[in-house]
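Lab notebook, bench 4. The sequencing result for the construct came back, and we need a structural model before the next group meeting so we can plan mutations. Quick request posted to the team channel:

Model the 3D structure of this chain.
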Amino acid sequence: MINLSSSNVHSLSKHSNFSNIICSGCNTVHQYDEIQNVCKDPSCQEALLACYDFVLGLSKDVLKNRPFTMWRYREFLPVLDPKNIVSLGEGGTPLFKAKNLSKIVGIPELYWKDEAGNPTGSFKARGMSAAVSKAKELGIKKMAIPTAGNAGVALAAYGVRAGMEVHVFMPKETPAQHKKEVEFYGAHLTEVDGNIGDCGKLVAELSPKNGWFNVSTLKEPYRLEGKKTMGYELAEQLNWELPDVILYPTGGGTGLIGFWKAFEELEQIGWIGSKRPRLIAVQSANCDSIVSAFHNSEPKAVAVDKGFTIANGLRVPKSYADKLILKILKYTKGTAISINDEEISQALSEVARLEGMFIAPEGAALWAAVKRLKLEGIVQESEKVVLVNTGSGYKYTENIFK
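Done. Here's the predicted structure in token form:
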């Protein structure tokens, strides 16, 4: 799809092998040391992807004795000087068998990759650690974000840790827990009467006027780099043998793109082969633009917003990188499926009662999805399947216990 490597050989003396940035749409190369959001070509403006000088023959032994956080993969993260890393110990999340659920669905090799234990309670910590660290390295002092909840909380925490001014724009319907956390960290919160798209429009309008760096999903290159470490980590936890299927809750879609990017990079390093899991995007039935576009063989999505969903993180009418997500689903021979709130609520209860896990509604949607996909024969009994729970249910008690 896209060549993510800049060259074949690079010195191991550097902390990071980050080399440049490429546009996911037109393949235009951008300089790595400039502050930028999306492709500079006015006719393109697609998401930007960080590229690295991959080291041929680099041994996995470099990981030995490193802390089990996302920064163990530092050669393939964008921060050049380690003094700029802003970390709260993100990454290093567990992978374990869903022993009881696997019996119900008839898939013996069913696993959870559980991101709930990250700082600030979700996988968003990975993305914000990378984005804030790189922003610090580039001299950025003020950041702004539209959010459905968890990303805003994570930016508030990492931004203030870095000494930055943080502005968070959040829909009024977001659970109060998220709003209180943002303010508790000392960030500036603006509640918006609308969805995350409406928040995004405000951030885009106000950022240039106020000198804020817009850290919207996939409108800057570095949140993705933190998210991709889920893929590096999963591969390492499975002894560098990838699963057959990965189900991922898809709102903005950064995590799904991150898994694809991680596996492409790992193959270029020589740590894995060419096998790829089928990536499955799971969306809310109230915001399923990727599902609709995929099954209609469309190259891009059309915004869909039917209102509130218990899974706030899935209320994203249209991902900024919809074209890339659709390409990745096709490239990996994956698919897309939408789940309604009734199914999510039932799944939350089943996961809690059978596995002892209080997971985010976005993660619960995956359990509902895998049951249906197994019945339809899309996921097979013999396959190794990974469900990625992106956050803690404790952040959603207002929705779950209505």
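The radius of gyration is 20 Å.
Will bring this to the meeting.
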